[in-house]
Amino acid sequence: MNIVDDVIRAKLHSHVLLIRQVSEYIINSGGKRLRPALVILSAGAFGYKGEFHYNLAAVVEFIHTATLLHDDVVDESELRRNRETANALFGNAASVLVGDFLYSRAFQMMVEVDNMRVMQVLADATNTIAEGEVLQLLNCRDPQVTEENYLQVIRYKTAKLFEAASRLGAILGGATPEEENAMSIYGMHLGTAFQLIDDMLDYTGNNQDIGKNLGDDLAEGKPTLPLIYAMRVGTPEQAGVIRRAIENGGEEGFQPVLDVIQKTAALDYARKCAEAEIVTATAAIASLPDSENKKCLMQLADFAITRNH
């Protein structure tokens, strides 16, 4: 991962000072680097001995960072990872344009790998992520969103890059089609569980731990799983509290919504859904040969549902 960070720093170079400033600010702001770690661990699980996995790990992080830059502009966010967002510091225009730079730099780097299968996976993933972003935008302030609709958004918007990262390592390592598919299943369900926990932390986390303000999703009118479940099983009065909060962007306050979520055990339901995703993820790679890399992939799955940030 230290080598990946070296690649990231080298590839961030631009003769345009503002690009360097914004890119370095967001890249160096303390992200977990889970997606690039998946590329490294997946490649290692299949005995890859080259160096392209470092490049592709950086590519995946650049794509992820570009989505964060654009997300924060769309959501009008002011805090991420306990720091001001890039758009709050540098402005929306700079954030959007530097996000475009990171996307294009990522595609320059993937061309260097000279593997059409790799390019196909990353091009498809980037397109799917964009679709997920638009779907989420359409779902905002809509209390009629179903659990199925919600899961489609997070599988497109978040889990798709986890899936791509896991698949890329398998491709580099010369995995069989069955093994490649197993890694993609692992990544997809890991990413889904990761987002489910993220959505729970918006109601249960600590501001310092999660690096953003509690209730941000509610303030943006995002119908996440705890809200969807609470509306489904709660009383008409409880469902009304949630419905109005989604429609009005939580203007009536965070606490009444949290009370309904707690009384309907919506967080317990969301956690059980996340745990089920992890069971599917780890089962997909259970038959891979034992190795330190496989062990780390299993530990990463456990971290996804036990973390507090």
Account of the 3D structure:
It is a single chain. This protein has 309 residues and is mainly alpha-helical. The chain has a single domain (2-296), classed as Farnesyl Diphosphate Synthase, CATH 1.10.600. It is built from 16 helices and 2 strands. It has helices at 2-11, 17-27, 34-45, 52-75, 86-90, 92-113, 116-139, 147-172, 177-204, 207-210, 216-219, 225-233, 236-248, 254-263, 266-284, 292-306, and strands at 79-80, 83-84. The protein has a two-stranded antiparallel sheet. A hairpin with a 2-residue loop joins strand 1 and strand 2 (83-84). The chain starts with a helix and ends with a helix. 46% of the residues are buried. It holds the Pfam family polyprenyl_synt.
